[in-house]
Amino acid sequence: VQGGSVVLGGEAVYSVALGQLLAQLRPGALLVEAHQVQGGIANEATAATAGDVSADPDADRPGPAVVPLLLVDDPRVCAELQMALDNWRGTVDEMDCMLYDMGALLWLQDNLGACTAATAVGDGGGNATVRLRALSARTQRLHDHLLAYAEALYWTETQRWLRTRQQAVTAAVAAAVAAAVVECTQDNGPGAATACSIDGSSRGQMPGGEASGDDGLSGHPVHQSSWVRCLLAAARCVRRMLRVVDRLLRLLQVVLGWRSEGDADTAAYMSYTAVFATNMMNVMQVMDVIGFLSVMVRGSTKPSSNGGSSGGDVDGRTGSTGLAWLDPDKACVLVAASTGAVMGALWLMLPNGTWRRISARAKWPRQVSYTLSKAMVAFLGFPQPAATIRHELGMSIFVLEGVILPAGVLMSPLESVFMGLIRAPLCARMWLLSAGSTFTITTAMARALALSALNVLTTVVVHMYIRVSYERQRRGAAQHAKAD
């Protein structure tokens, strides 16, 4: 062991060189006892193999001078756990407890394998099957606990590793129990199959005199009834669903700002979100330009198109049927698409990097443009083009302003709520003033609030999707970095 100077209350960085001892070790907990010598250098250590770890993590817990190391047989699991420990945010005792539990599970699995082999060759007498099933139940409980812990922390490689090892052990136990049942049936007759699977009697004893019924497995036939299997399958399904719900709730808390993942994580996530939002805003840029051109190349609306407002009679002149870029019915469209039109022109003139930086900051100008265009129609008496009236009164507005707009011009959930409360009365009044509208004040306001709620919901869903994508990319990058 190589270490450094240690002062009271300080930390020491050390490395352990196992050398030829590594070939003799199995996966499990390796205990290194460090001793302080003159000068504060930790340069003496004694190692104990994984077999020295008790199946009870609390029974043989060493003192503070003993450092636990975890030996694994998968390099990807090693890289993942090393990264997790490097970024550990809990206490040292919590980290040690996790390592001891991992080591205890590996020790139990090794002993279960040895017990399975002994049962297969007929060693251990009549109690062999009882001991095997009791040890299997204990191993399964600890495995389920550690697997749930790994799933909560998104240790994907560790989850795969734990499942693979446990499935192999479980299959070996099932084969050994089945072989023992067959042997007992041949020796004692068909009626003895159930009794042999339990130790040849109705009650067995675990090592140490404890009743094997404590593990909840004694007294059950080897072949469980179908309803029990269905119940166990349903329990596993419910447990999986609860884990998914727990993960979604955690993501929702992070997105809504009710839970923090740390300053460094927040800064990295905001940078990742900015790139995603810029790309989506470029999509909105294209839609702005297309919408602007499609409306502006049409003729003016007729005077009756917006509830009696005159869109084609300006200073006594009749509405034009050709291009009328300055007609009042085009004003709201011109204002709504003004930011998109300006950004489209800048795209032709500015370098790509400069334009993308400007586009990323165009979130609020776009929102102000969209909101101002609605205020012009709702309170300033400007008419609307016929195409936009059909859009406002139909269901397409829920697609555009409830789904596409919040995804393309991404706001925070709180900002989305703020903008929704501002736009709801504007939308309701626009719909009441539109020609052919059948809305009342109540139905128009309810529809406007539903549109705002859909906008907020889409914003939250998009942020959760970005968060999932960010965490997946971060785990992949960390694994690649460790592999390199």
Explain what this protein looks like in three dimensions:
With 484 residues, the protein is mostly helical. It folds into 2 domains: 19-223, no CATH class; 263-483, no CATH class. It is built from 15 helices and 3 strands. The protein has helices at 75-86, 92-120, 128-152, 156-188, 193-197, 226-255, 263-296, 328-336, 338-349, 352-360, 363-379, 386-393, 396-408, 413-433, 441-483, and strands at 28-36, 42-48, 66-71. It has a 3-stranded antiparallel beta sheet. Strand 1 (28-36) and strand 2 form a beta hairpin. It is elongated and about 95 Å long. Mean pLDDT is 72; it is low at 1-9, 38-64, 185-224 and 300-324.
Topology:
Blueprint: E1 28-36, E2 42-48, E3 66-71, H1 75-86, H2 92-120, H3 128-152, H4 156-188, H5 193-197, H6 226-255, H7 263-296, H8 328-336, H9 338-349, H10 352-360, H11 363-379, H12 386-393, H13 396-408, H14 413-433, H15 441-483
Antiparallel strand pairs: 1-2, 1-3
What keyword list fits this structure?
three-stranded antiparallel sheet, membrane, 2 domains, elongated, transmembrane helix, disordered N terminus, transmembrane, 62% helix, 3 strands, mainly alpha
**Computed CA radius of gyration, to the nearest angstrom:** 35 Å
Helix content: 55-70%
Kindly estimate the percentage of residues that lie in beta strands according to DSSP.
under 5%
Order of helices and strands: EEEHHHHHHHHHHHHHHH
Global outline:
elongated
- Tally of domains: 2
| Alpha-beta classification | mainly alpha
Low-confidence stretches: 1-9, 38-64, 185-224, 300-324
Main β-sheet, spatial strand arrangement: 2-1-3
Look at the structure and give the mean pLDDT: 72
What is the rounded distance between the termini?
25 Å
Region (Disordered): 198-218
Keywords: Membrane, Transmembrane, Transmembrane helix
Transmembrane segments: 333-350, 393-414, 448-466
